[in-house]
Specification:
Elements lengths: L1 H6 L1 H4 L13 H16 L4 E7 L2 E12 L5 E8 L8 H15 L4 E6 L4 H9 L3 E12 L2 E11 L18
Parallel strand pairs: 3-4
Antiparallel strand pairs: 1-2, 2-3, 4-6, 5-6
The protein binds coenzyme A.
Length: about 170
């Protein structure tokens, strides 16, 4: 992970929060991955890594899982700058849709900065619909930035249906 984040530092910089230097080290990534594993246990965040041989070539996270009557989560993803325009981000988002359904989620949401045309195209290709625009939505690179919001409804089964694995508890 550390090597992938070093390789992709400039590529990801415009879209990511400001990272501490430790984020780009093996020790820093050991801490990050440990957090991801804990979050998976707590059903808060489910992270998937795309491999190219021994290298990490991308990542997607189903994050901010909200249960109860919402059954919703947000997506965050990136693909290595050497592997762009091969449909990999679309495949990652489609994978998250399948995983989200298996987790019993009803809806996935993703927000993109207004000029992130690549990410918007990926979401449209993966069946997401634009449903709004939120002003001063996320703190990216030192400012509260507007975002275009997309969602995909995963199913219309009732809450608590064992067939969709809905977990009613939690929040
Ligand atoms: C956005 C990102 C994940 C796209 O990854 P990708 O693997 O290249 O995407 P795909 O190959 O699945 O692209 C699918 C379609 O999106 C569109 N697209 C992709 N990159 C594009 C670009 N730079 N400009 C315009 N359209 C683009 C194209 O329509 C493309 O289909 P095509 O190649 O057949 O024309 C990648 O550019 C990235 O990692 N960006 C930085 C991080 C980021 O923005 N993450 C999302 C935050 S919301």
């Amino acid at each position: 992970m550390a090597a992938a984040y070093v390789r992709n530092r400039e590529h990801l910089e415009p879209w990511d929060p400001v990272r501490a230097e430790s984020f780009f080290t093996e020790a820093g990534q050991a801490v990050e991955v440990g957090r991801q594993l804990e979050d998976r246990e707590r059903d808060k965040r489910h992270t998937f890594v795309l491999w190219h041989g021994p290298d990490v070539a991308g990542r997607i996270a189903i994050d901010n899982v909200a249960r109860g009557v919402l059954q919703s989560a947000t997506l965050g993803y990136w693909v290595d700058h050497e592997h762009l325009r091969r449909g990999l981000a679309t495949a990652l988002v489609e994978h998250a849709v399948v995983a989200g359904r298996a987790l019993g989620l009803h809806r996935l949401e993703a927000g993109t900065r207004p000029h992130n045309e690549a990410s918007q195209a990926v979401l449209r290709r993966a069946g997401f619909q634009e449903y709004g625009r939120a002003e001063r939505f996320l703190f990216i690179r030192g400012e509260w930035t507007d975002h275009v919001l997309f969602q995909r409804i995963l199913h219309d089964e009732p809450l608590g249906n064992p067939q969709t694995g809905n977990r009613v508890g939690g929040s």
